[in-house]
Write a structure and sequence with these properties.
376 residues, mainly alpha, 2 domains, two-stranded antiparallel ribbon
């Protein structure tokens, strides 16, 4: 009764719908494939929490400087100088740990969940090691500012802030590792929540400790430094909480906490250039603010301090976009490798070019003439 072509159509319609495996939740559901988002939308969804997290440490120091300006110019200048110098000191470790994003996202793309957990732990071990290596700098902090020729009263304030902030380096290192892990495993909302709450707690703690609210006595610049440590700790604790929930811990085998030389070697080899580059960028600004501007006196440093705080916030989004690109490109990079072995679809590889093409258009003038580059 039916033609041969008609039979083929009936058989095709009778086939069961494909099963989609929800890897993240460890469950399976049968549903139609979801409509994929445009790469630029995916990038911006990743970038928003990333920009917020990248700016969190800078924003905490901005809040400290803002509140310290109500106490006096000397305190605000000391807090800003110490803050940027502290960031330049820990930036090497942070730059290396940013590579956790690269390594985990590639493992995530090839569905190697065990490797994701192992790279997380190697990042933690590296962070602990860096924190231990930086500890000897605490006693010599006062001498660093004297070498730049700062006034004695300013040196005393700067030393207090720098020593307190550097004492909490381990929290920043561990928090950075978990932040990169969560972003690489496609959990940017968790990163955003931890960041917002961490900054909010820092602002509240700074207000209480600087000005003597909620039973605290006025602590001055020491209160600003301790408030930042409180904010960093809360942010880290929330990131750890989000990353160690039972289903995530089981999926990525986070109980495998052992030091593994092969994974650590990969992290160091790939991460050291990143750490050097970040350190060079931040250290150049730090030496300018703390060293060069010192020749013009404390008032000149104060004016430069307030300008720098606003300027630093303005270019932090660029760092966030770059980190989001790393996360988005990790799985694509793996698919590109698979394609060369003949096992991945052409469309996944082409999306790499679309991702960078759309980003280029976003950063360009936005004219319609730029859009043909999306199809190169």
């Amino acid at each position: 009764m039916f033609s041969e072509s008609g039979k083929r159509e009936i058989i095709a319609l009778a086939k069961p719908r494909p099963k989609i495996v929800a890897v993240e939740l460890g469950t399976e559901t049968t549903s139609a494939p979801a409509v994929s988002r445009r790469p630029i939308v995916e990038l911006l969804m990743l970038a928003a929490p990333t920009v917020a997290q990248m700016a969190s440490y800078t924003l905490m120091q901005f809040i400290d400087t803002l509140m310290l300006s109500r106490v006096g110019n000397t305190e605000a200048t000391a807090g800003s100088n110490s803050g940027i110098l502290a960031f330049s000191i820990i930036s090497f470790g942070i730059g290396v740990l940013w590579v956790v994003n690269t390594l985990v996202s590639q493992a995530f793309g090839r569905k190697d969940s065990t490797a994701c957990g192992r790279y997380l732990w190697q990042g933690i071990w590296f962070g602990l090691l860096m924190s231990a290596l930086l500890a000897p700098l605490l006693p010599i902090a006062p001498h660093m500012f004297r070498w730049f020729g700062h006034e004695p009263g300013l040196v005393r304030q700067e030393s207090i802030y720098l020593q307190i902030v550097l004492a909490a380096t381990v929290f920043k290192m561990i928090g950075t590792t978990f932040w990169q892990f969560l972003l690489a495993t496609d959990r940017p909302v968790s990163v955003m929540m931890a960041t917002v709450l961490g900054v909010a707690v820092n602002a509240l703690a700074a207000w209480a400790m600087l000005f003597g609210h909620f039973g605290f006595h006025r602590m001055g610049i020491a209160g600003a430094a301790w408030a930042q440590n409180v904010g960093v700790f809360v942010e880290m604790a929330l990131l750890v909480f989000f990353a160690t929930r039972p289903h995530i811990r089981k999926l990525y085998n986070l109980g495998d906490w052992k030091f593994r030389w092969h994974e650590m070697k990969t992290l160091i080899v790939v991460g050291v250039p990143s750490g050097v580059q970040i350190t060079a960028d931040v250290l150049a600004w730090s030496l300018f603010c703390v060293g060069v501007m010192a020749r013009f006196g404390t008032y000149a440093m104060a004016a430069n301090t307030f300008t720098m705080r606003y300027m630093v916030l303005s270019f932090m989004p660029a760092f966030g976009i770059s980190t989001a690109i790393t996360r988005a490109r990790g799985p694509i990079h793996w698919c590109g490798q698979a394609r060369r072995r003949g096992s991945a679809g052409e469309s996944r590889i082409r999306s790499d070019g679309h991702l960078y093409g759309e980003l280029r258009c976003l950063l360009s003038s936005g004219s319609e003439r730029a859009y043909p580059g999306l199809h190169v």
